[in-house]
């Protein structure tokens, strides 16, 4: 069995009116599975469990529901750098569960990104 990180896309859908833009969550699930296909199946199951609303969910004060959009990416977790296991079957301190790749157009935007400030990025796959 190995470990996987699955990026599940969840989005907010207004209940009573059309919408032009969508607020998105990317939830990352850490999964143990014998192969990528089973990890994807498990990730889809967890994403679907999060769908819905309890009649209190809103987006900008308007009634909304949370929708599972799908699994955007599935990654095998890398062993810890300098870790003792050398094996993907063991999760330990320092394991790389997932990663994202971005491009920014200037050093100033890089510095802003590092500080956690809003900045325009090119999201690389």
What does this structure look like?
It is flat and about 50 Å long. The protein has one domain (2-98). 18% of the residues lie in helices and 37% in strands. The protein has helices spanning 36-50, 107-114; strands at residues 2-14, 24-33, 58-59, 62-76, 101-103, 122-124. A hairpin with a 2-residue loop joins β3 and β4. It is built from two helices and six strands. The mean pLDDT is 89.
Q: Features of this protein?
A:
single chain, 125 residues, alpha+beta, 4-stranded antiparallel β-sheet, two-stranded antiparallel ribbon, 2 helices, 37% strand
Q: What amount of the residues lies in strands?
A: 35-45%
**Shape annotation:** flat
What is the strand arrangement across the widest sheet?
Answer: 2-1-4-3
- The percent range for helix content is 10-25%
Radius of gyration, in Å, reads 18 Å
**How does the major sheet shape up?**
4 strands, antiparallel
The number of domains is 1
Regions with pLDDT < 50 over 5+ consecutive residues?
none
State the secondary-structure class: alpha+beta
* Number of E-state strands: 6
Total helix count?
Answer: 2
Distance between the termini: 26 Å
